């Protein structure tokens, strides 16, 4: 290397490192790309080559003056790596990893093992799987062997993520699946497939289309392996503040290979749910089938891979009332027509998934990948706890994406350019037309919901979508030297996405009826409905623009210490939010005389709000006083220290900040509530009177029961009863600060890790009630000012930041990976969690207190205090593979407003509180477990010839038929005395996961 060139590299590296260090505060190491990086030492000046004999892919670089080399952008696979005669080694690289491999001729190669999860069929190569150990990231890799063998209730590839400490994959009572990292909500996670984010910008769930869905985000047959990172990530990661999952899809090889499978079960092969023990078993059925095929188009140059999967479910569900603060069963108090809808029901679901991919080794420096994925899904949802089948919703969920990736390698640099286009939408409509009927518990001043029947709420009509292109580019310098070796990355991302949302439809008015210890009232006390306005379609639309840039330095200081220094900056422009103008009719009403009793002459409604702590200047928008979401600087730093420079005992740690996004589902409410008014009218009936001075309090008229056509034309004062949503003019994006410290160890074939993490999330979004009494108070006689809305307009709902969590976790893991030589594998993942939150992270409507800042921090209901997941797989004689999975978790607390006849200092009759029910035994010990499950599977292979085989698989899920209850009974107490055991499980209600179920699979591999 010439001196001037070397000097330039050192200078550039110094400037980059100094810049990053100057702005950085503590993060971690991990690439958003699913590709692997190989680093190490070789003879100075030697040409280092990595060759994949299965596809013909070849990558080369030249070792530097100190012998160091780096090969970037290697798809996970098995490679022949050499740096000259006598140095060749066969190694397997895992997804999104940075592995170390020394190639000096004098270095003895490590013992090879012929089994590794990422090897594709067709080429038998003995290879060492290189595991990334010099990393401060907190997480683990899910191998193809684990995906193929661990028992599974769904074909959602993310189900295996809960074998990583800190992760929870949940199958709820309705069969809906979700993934959570730590004690944060599902929306804060992100999944990257082949380096492309699958983020949902409109609805909850983290991944587009995954909110309240039984479906899978991607066909499992197409997943090679994936990495789960629970804390601290490199600066490449964007739009995530909890768990990041990066997956690599399969590619074709130089030989044709494929698979066909079918899985089946029905109600004859499962036990009864708790409700079915009295009401009889409901018909249910589950069918899953699909195929995959891949092979060469041009040998060693171009390959293809195609897959299709479909699933059809009829999922049993129990229709039971919501629990209310009542000592007995409320069911006998409901009308006979409602009682007849309680009991067993089912939910229909149908999903089709498609994926296709072509990879082209254009040169030994250039790789092109073109892929597309399609998701088509229909389902019935809503039925279950608190909702009868008549109030269910028909859902359509479509997601289409196309990707183009060009990767170019040079001796000292690497570049990856990705173009992507997405079109995802959901459409939801009531399953039945007509009126809806909501039954609420009258003795509680908050009127908690018991059950909904009739047509679904008009707000259940949802048409929401995200569509648009994106481009990202990452440039990597491989050959920089200054006080050690550096791999420095720069990258940017731009996305133009059109977001649409309609929040309701002018149909299905909801009538509210009181239920009390004497029964159900004959007349409703309230109605809610939406109205069409001439010339308005009720759709919010915006063309959002997202920008992100980052810099990352992975700095190998010496054989012991590695530093990972990074910083990223994100910016989002959302015109729907920034350009919104508060309507003049709302401004006029706010500044008019307060008409309610107790208001002084000349006192406006705005004055009453100000007395109650609501500054309208924070919420009224003129289209110019709001700023886009910017200033999202995210410094990240991590370190790893290899105690003996042998990759066997590594201390690691990191800290950093990560920003997420405010969902458009929240930001669009100002527009949709204004263009499609949603009205609430109270009826002044003897058993439930309202304040007759309020414009939203009207006499009851039986004519209202004629429904939408009558109510549509009933607007007191022109606008009375309509909801007004105002968002804070200084909204921020939610974020988390993450810290970790731990140690990983390799002991023989075992890999262990012990890590302590601390995550502080802030600025979660919440809606609160803006209404105030004339004197500004929020509580009077345990009642909120629902009857005191904006005069002649309607109730005021305010949108602010404020939900936050505080979580400390101890994460312990031990893993013995599978090899053909040993014939077995096992893993243990234990998580201890101490988590607090100031609001249920799944509840963005927060009406129990005047502001989100008034909520106390209570024990989080998002995560169990103790959770253990253990797996094991074993090769048995006669071509049989067996595996088992054990999951144990302590009960989740109930977060609720505790109402027990007390009067709080602020005038409320309730206080936010957490209480944990007693659990059940597991083999020995006390009633401490809220979730217990053992699953098993057995697979028998029948070899036909060569790589062609037929297999038969038998899964038995929830082997001991433990009931993992989903519903609670609540009785906080009365007379101002709090019960010592206020929350218990409803043992006649729904269960999460499944009753004992047998599933049968047959398949062909060739």
Secondary structure blueprint with pairings:
Elements: H1 3-23, E1 36-41, E2 47-51, E3 58-62, E4 68-74, E5 78-82, E6 89-93, E7 98-100, E8 128-130, E9 138-142, H2 144-149, E10 167-171, E11 177-181, E12 190-193, E13 196-197, E14 223-231, E15 244-249, E16 257-266, H3 276-279, E17 285-298, E18 302-319, H4 336-339, E19 343-361, E20 366-381, E21 393-409, E22 413-430, E23 436-441, E24 449-454, E25 462-481, E26 485-502, E27 510-516, E28 519-520, E29 526-530, E30 539-556, E31 561-573, H5 575-578, H6 584-590, H7 605-611, E32 629-642, E33 649-659, H8 664-667, H9 669-675, E34 678-683, E35 697-698, H10 708-712, E36 724-727, E37 735-747, E38 750-769, E39 796-816, E40 824-837, E41 858-859, E42 866-876, E43 880-889, E44 894-899, E45 910-915, E46 920-922, E47 924-929, E48 931-945, E49 948-957, E50 968-970, E51 973-974, E52 977-978, E53 983-985, E54 997-1005
Parallel strand pairs: 1-7, 6-8, 12-15, 23-27, 34-35, 36-39
Antiparallel strand pairs: 1-4, 2-3, 2-5, 5-6, 9-14, 10-11, 12-13, 14-15, 16-17, 16-54, 17-18, 18-19, 19-20, 20-21, 21-22, 22-25, 23-24, 25-26, 26-30, 27-28, 27-29, 29-34, 30-31, 31-32, 32-33, 33-37, 37-38, 38-39, 39-40, 40-41, 40-42, 42-43, 43-48, 44-45, 46-47, 48-49, 49-54, 50-53, 51-52
Describe the structure.
Helix content is 7%, strand content 47%. The protein is built from ten helices and 54 strands. It has a 22-stranded antiparallel beta barrel. Strands 23, 24, 27, 28, 29, 34 and 35 form a seven-stranded mixed beta sheet that branches. A five-stranded mixed beta sheet has the order 3-2-5-6-8, with no helix packed on it. The longest helix has 21 residues, at 3-23. It starts with a helix and ends with a strand. Mean pLDDT is 90; it is low at 1-31 and 107-125.
